[in-house]
Design a protein that fits this description.
Layout: H1 2-6, H2 9-36, E1 45-49, E2 55-60, E3 71-77, E4 82-87, H3 107-144, H4 159-206, H5 216-250, E5 260-263, H6 264-275, E6 278-282, E7 294-297, H7 299-316, E8 322-330, E9 333-341, H8 375-385, E10 389-394, E11 400-407
Parallel strand pairs: 6-8
Antiparallel strand pairs: 1-2, 2-3, 3-4, 5-7, 8-9, 9-11, 10-11
Length: 415
């Protein structure tokens, strides 16, 4: 608890100031005490002189005297008389000498009062200074978390204000460059759709039908070449479509899509039928009454989410693909859970977070498996857009399971 409290910069500065003032107070108090009561040397021998300056008697300090006791001497004169000489010491107030009242109240109380006044006065000064540093820290954290529009307050003319001003300038430049980059990528992806469509149409028109003079082997080879070209065009078209959607999501253009009540069960059933995947429902009333799970969301984006998960499972798995749809109650409320299971090679534990990064593919993934690493990144973006999460787990018996959790009320978020 103490380590957490002293980890703040303003606390450490405040404690340093308080400690410094307390040390100076002790030193000043010690010097004042020393000057008020200078040390006295012990009296060991007394000499008695007459009016002519002659020594007429001497005496030694009596043994057994305690510090602070009165000084008492038995002076024996030259004529044999014994004189008793008593030198009383000034009496100090009882108790600790450091607690004697120098100005009408105890020194210890004065020391405590000075320390309390310093602590009370230094705290708001230190806090005001470090509040600006904390505001700068929060702004940098927001910016580092992905909010490129985050800016910090630049009030003042000191080094903190200068640092905040330079941060705002750098953040504005980076935000402008990122916006231009996303806009360029989105526009380029959109413009590439038309040339691809023309290439596909031209390929269909230029491919002549097989003639009787053409050997079966040559006709088969031509058909295979055409199928390979069409497959490459389809992959390129799919890549452009994914890049375009990712750019729109990053550029917040998808906010224009309204959230509406939709049947997630129907979307899942249609996508499972498209690739012959098994659909399993674990719905509770009232959702299970008519085998439908209703939630608020974008039908186009959620369809893409389910399709990308199923396509990813089909790409790495030889059959045995299933989609499990359930509704669970959590502390955050009702949530729809989408689980896509496959029997592929699985995902190593160390890679289960990175596979959701754009353009990241597992080491050793071959080109024949297709994909460029955008499908799962889109799944993560779409799930976060709906206020949900996605994760990858190992499937019992081999394979992988991708689990998406979405709020039923369709909490829309903008990264």
């Amino acid at each position: 608890m103490w380590a957490r409290f002293t980890s703040h910069l303003y606390v450490r500065i405040w404690l340093a100031v308080v400690a410094t003032v307390l040390v100076l107070t002790f030193l000043v108090g010690a010097a004042w005490q020393f000057s008020r009561d200078p040390p006295q040397l012990p009296i060991r021998e007394v000499l008695v002189h007459n009016t002519d300056g002659e020594v007429i008697g001497t005496a030694q300090t009596k043994p057994g005297r305690k510090p602070g006791d009165d000084l008492e001497f038995d002076v024996v004169t030259k004529d044999g008389q014994t004189l008793n000489l008593l030198l009383p010491r000034p009496k100090r107030p009882p108790g600790n000498p450091w607690m004697r009242p120098p100005f009408g109240f105890g020194f210890g109380w004065m020391l405590g009062l000075v320390g309390f006044a310093v602590a009370l006065g230094a705290y708001p000064i230190m806090r005001r200074l470090t509040l600006r540093l904390e505001a700068l820290q929060r702004g940098v954290e927001r910016w580092g978390a992905g909010d490129l529009s985050a800016r910090v307050n630049t009030d003042g003319s000191d080094e903190v204000a200068f640092l905040a001003s330079r941060f705002n300038h750098a953040a504005e430049r980076i935000e402008t460059l990122m916006a231009l980059h996303k806009s360029l990528l989105a526009n380029a992806s959109h413009e590439l759709r038309s040339p691809l469509a023309r290439i596909r149409m031209g390929l269909e028109l230029l491919t002549p039908p097989p003639t009787p003079e053409q050997s079966p082997q040559a006709a088969k080879m031509a058909s295979q070449q055409k199928a390979e070209i069409l497959r490459s065009i389809n992959e390129l078209d799919q890549l452009i479509d994914e890049i375009l959607l990712a750019s729109r999501l990053d550029a917040k253009q998808a906010d224009a899509e309204p959230f509406e009540a939709l049947d997630l069960t129907g979307l899942a059933a249609e996508e499972c039928a498209r690739i012959n995947a098994d659909l399993q429902l674990e719905l509770q009333p009232p959702a299970g009454a008519d085998h439908s799970l209703m939630l608020q969301g974008s039908a186009r984006l959620l369809r893409r989410l389910i399709r990308n998960l199923l396509e990813n499972a089909r790409r790495y798995s030889q059959g045995d693909i299933s989609l499990e749809l359930a509704q669970v109650r959590t502390r955050e409320g009702q949530r729809a859970v989408i689980k896509v299971h496959d029997r592929g090679p699985g995902v190593p534990k160390a890679q289960r977070e990175r596979i959701f990064e754009p353009f990241y593919r597992l080491p050793g993934a071959s080109e024949r498996e297709g994909g460029v690493g955008l499908g799962l990144a889109l799944v993560k973006s779409i799930s976060e857009r709906h206020g949900g999460t996605v994760r990858c787990e190992a499937r019992p018996g081999g394979g992988a399971s991708f689990i998406v959790e979405l709020p039923v009320d369709g909490k829309k978020t903008v990264p």
